[in-house]
Design a protein that fits this description.
EC 5.4.99.5, binds prephenic acid, chorismate mutase activity, 263 residues, CM_II_prokaryot, 19% strand
Length: 263
């Protein structure tokens, strides 16, 4: 008897391979087949939900238009909330997998609103910066290495995308965040892992959409963001200017030299 062919009208699904007779299968093969069937059913649900989420993300893109003029569609504060919610619910042993997967999911959501262009400048350690950008923005982003940090800042200021720029270099591009590039904000840092960021992500981000976390300050002298005895981490200095992180509660803007935040 051929048992592998189901009546096409049956709503029973054939879970064993078409060329296999279950009577010939070992218990181990049966167990494996049943588990794979379970995975197939879960994949069907994930696919349906993922495609629904993509469609909603496309609608969100149309619904949100920054009140402060044209900015990138990227909303670091919302991404922080989405990831935080998932990490708060998952099993601790799955945290890394969940964080990576949701970065991808959100990256594809953003891509439904237009491909995110990322320009990376990191002359000393390009691979690490590129990998950091890929992890942060996901496979949907169009990520390119560039040779000129000023060109990358101009690209971001024109609203074409975001820049990821190394800080451990001789080029103090970050001083320009207060001067020429005041429409840009730092919204993330890479290479943290307990240590200091070695590259910063900069974009034309709607100020209320910055993440909550340590503020990034560019200030004259060595006391950037020190007010009130807040903790402060110096990242770089140049000709009397300091780039630092602080946990002082500063608002982005020219007065205190706050040029963004890192979640
Ligand atoms: O909430 C938004 O503004 C969205 O565009 C949706 C979404 C997401 O997929 O969750 C995508 C991109 C944004 O950077 C933040 C979140």
């Amino acid at each position: 008897m051929t048992v592998s062919t189901l009546n096409p009208n049956s709503n029973l699904k054939q879970v064993w391979p078409a060329d296999m007779n279950p009577a010939d299968m070992t218990p181990e093969q049966m167990a494996l087949t049943a588990l794979r069937h379970e995975i197939d059913l879960i994949d069907d649900q994930i696919l349906e939900l993922f495609e629904r989420r993509l469609a909603i993300a496309a609608s969100v893109g149309k619904a949100k238009d920054a009140p402060h003029g044209p900015h990138t569609k990227l909303r670091p504060d919302r991404e922080q909330t989405v990831l935080g919610r998932m990490l708060g619910q998952c099993q601790p042993e799955n945290a890394e997998a969940v964080a990576g997967l949701w970065r991808e999911i959100v990256g594809w959501g953003l891509a439904r609103q237009g491909t995110l262009q990322v320009q990376v400048w990191a002359p000393n350690d390009p691979t690490r910066a590129f990998d950091g950008a890929r992890q942060r923005f996901g496979m949907a982003a169009d990520i390119r290495m560039v040779r000129d940090p000023q060109a990358a800042l101009a690209f971001a200021a024109e609203g074409h995308g975001v820049a990821v720029l190394a800080v451990n270099t001789d080029d103090a591009w970050w001083v320009g965040l207060r001067r020429e590039w005041s429409s840009l904000s730092v919204f993330d840092g890479f290479g943290l892992g307990g240590g200091q960021p070695t590259a910063l992500a900069v974009g034309k981000i709607d100020p209320p959409a910055l993440p909550t976390g340590r503020r990034v300050v560019v200030a004259a002298g060595g006391d950037a963001g020190d007010g009130g005895g807040a903790r402060r981490w110096g990242l770089a200095t140049d000709h009397g200017w300091t780039l630092a992180l602080t946990d002082a509660d500063l608002a982005p803007g020219e007065v205190e030299g706050c040029v963004g935040a890192i979640g």
